[in-house]
């Protein structure tokens, strides 16, 4: 397979399966449900995805079988279209362009050429109408459906707030504490209202409505858990209703059986209740369904029920209330604290799932493989209650070991570090070691020494914490004769650096070096002797991400700061190789190649830059990756490497990059002009031709961005000369020079200086620079700032070269 010429970003899964009511096929062999802007068809027998209907440009809000042909399906979307599908073959038959956002869809057997939909009311905010949409039968695949008739005004946008009565004779709609019923033949409207609260303080607000398929009976759910069965509602004053009550909180949905002999209800209790013959005494229960029930569906043959849950799961239930099948999508928690981690064994994405659980999510099938209970405590659904939360997770190289961190913060912080070993017999992880309070403060990062040959002999885990320590944990033999396992984990080394908080940690590819960031400083340690080898610093800003290069780039260390710097250090020369000013939110190395992906946040959208550490020029740039901030990213290995022709996309040959987004807004930031950003950003005042030819263009500069100021601020204080010596140079740098030089003379001077810099290796280490096409970083730090003359810059370099260490003796 040859990759396309352009890089595409595709939503691969994770959409809500409970966004609208699911629909059974006529023979109950298939279940159709919405999934973002797709419609998915699952096999009821195998739970597998049979096909996916793609064509809508926005969220699908409703699906209905075509009453005239049960092998066809209608779907509505926020893109303003209604599509007719042959779902058995996955073929789009026709598209009807309505022109309004469609929030709900209904299809009736006695209306052959029309469907009903809920649309926004023109000119009014948060006001909606139920309309009839006439579907013309003219030839062509796309046609306009602009003939709309308003049925009800002031309805609720939720699809479960409107229902049609037996044989389509009437429609019932609820909103707040009002019920309105419209009779089509008589064109009569009856309205009924309840008080907001009853005498016992119950909440009478309507939450859902369902109509009996054979009788004139309407069932409504309420905020206090009650269900009302309305009868004789054809008269405004002679209506009656009876009350059913079991739910202790809001009734989420209602559905009648095919013959109407029983009523199904569900709520936040995760229990499906079956009421027989409208009696409060005769009811059956199916408990422990996992999470709140959002929708209830009934198959047309009456043999199966289906419940859609808020944890993105669909449960298929037999008519005798026996559990049959479950389809679990990606669980979206309130906060993904573990990040995206790839399980080396299954290549599944691992992240927070249900409270206290890890979910293993298959990217190919868009389904959850299984869930691992980490906290092993019952979760209590109560607002404001602090409970143990899963915050960190890490796998060893081959997936034999799993490390997790749980925390709960009340008056005192409670921390637990757990080490799990994979059991080949049960094909699951089994708890090996539990460590209470491994650190005195929050754990900020952890990682395994990920070289394969180390795993069986001497696996090692490193944790970093806000208590200004990092700790190395190793396996030791358990000498306790009553112990259930032969080995356990114990602390082997504790390290710190100037009492700074440890923020990140990672091992080199061969496992010999460990990098730990302490606020603004990165420290590099020997993982065998625990000697501190070197430190790197690039102020201002704390270190946000660090990673080592791999394969041919293993001698480089990459770091990103929260002040918008991306830096690359050479571990052999202990010098800064290059740096760029870029607001990197995610820094993710590919485990199978030298490539590193950096995701930045620029101008209200996320952009992707892929590069090799040994080359500051990016290999691939994808601007406007998405309009949301990217939280996490992960490279997932392919089963079979792709055949990719373009050199620009070779980094996708063996792995695919997945990322997770959120909906948070960010402050717009600009990308300053550095040599790296010239290759990444817009060339504002300098043409690409001049950059390629190595020419330097002089800009007018603002004083606050003066290179002299940056030199003074970034030079260590103990090597600076006296202020009286530097003051004249600094003052002169603020003056505008009267001399004007040609571009050729300036280019010659830059070339001469670069040659002098190459002859002096000590100067290379002292001056932070990135050599690329003979361009120096200081030439492009700002757009319009005052710059030093060449003689002044040379004099300032000589000053920085001078050894002032003798001052320390005083």
UniProtKB/TrEMBL annotation:
Domain of life: Eukaryota
GO biological process: positive regulation of rRNA processing; positive regulation of transcription by RNA polymerase I; rRNA processing
Composition bias type Acidic residues, residue spans: 745-767
Keyword Repeat applies: yes
Residue stretches of each WD repeat: 53-95, 199-230
Keywords: Nucleus, Repeat, Ribosome biogenesis, rRNA processing, Transcription, WD repeat
Domain WD repeat-containing protein 75 second beta-propeller: 340-664
Region spans: Disordered: 742-767
Recorded GO MF terms: RNA binding
InterPro entries per record: Beta-prop_WDR75_2nd, Quinoprotein_ADH-like_sf, WD40/YVTN_repeat-like_dom_sf, WD40_repeat_CS, WD40_repeat_dom_sf, WD40_rpt, WDR75
Pfam families: Beta-prop_WDR75_1st, Beta-prop_WDR75_2nd
A GO cellular-component term linked to this record: small-subunit processome
rRNA processing listed as a keyword: yes
Location in the cell: Nucleus, Nucleolus
Major location (coarse): nucleus
Listed name of the protein: WD repeat domain 75
Organism this protein belongs to: Apteryx owenii
